[in-house]
Every structure is written in C-alpha cells, then in structure tokens.
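Blinded run. Sample ID left blank on purpose so nobody reads anything into the name before looking at the predicted structure. Input follows.
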Amino acid sequence: MSLQANWETYKGKQILNVCYTTCNSTDEMIKLLEKELQMLKDAGGNSLLLADFRGTTVENEFMDKAKSIGKELEALTDKSAILGITGVKKILLMAYNKVAKGSLKPFDDETAAKDYLVN
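Blinded prediction complete.
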C-alpha cells in the first residue's frame, strides 16, 4: 500500500496533492483521507488541496467518512480541486459539498485544476 499525499510547489504556492488512484481498497482510501486531514492540520490551515480520484470507485463507507470529517477539511483549506469526477461521482460530490458545506471544484485537467488553486 502506497498512500500518496505530498506537498508540491506550483507557481510559487504549496498544494497538497492527494492521489487516491493508487488505493486498492476502501480501507486504503479512508487511511489516505485521514492522512490528508493530518497533513492539513500540520500545515495550520489556509491550504490548497488537489485530490485525484481518476479511475477510482468510491464506496459508501468512504463517503460516510468524508462527510464526517468534511467540515474540518473545509476549515483547513482555502481552495480545493478534485480530478476524476464523472457520472455518479458528480452526484456524490454534490452531496458531499451540501453536507460538509464544501466547495470542492471538479476538473478534468490537472493543469487547469492547479491554475484554479493558485489564482
């Protein structure tokens, strides 16, 4: 299991890049979500976040966990972008944003997502 979350400098700003595409199970996705939360806490808030869900399947158990910590995640981020949200995932994202008062913005292109975050 390789939980990929790291800080990246893009156009002079730090972005927490979280890649869910390497997860092989819902348990791994939840562990990565918890790691994401801890990294944002360690950074002290006001962070930029890019979450990559391309090619993943999101189960109810993961969504339940994301909803339960969503407000805390939102409080720690200035802007959030998400990759790989199509079809049913868009419905789940809308539900997450509503429950967690979130503002995750979906993108198809990684460069466009990063540009949104730093501008």
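Unblinding after everyone has recorded impressions. The longest strand covers residues 4-10.
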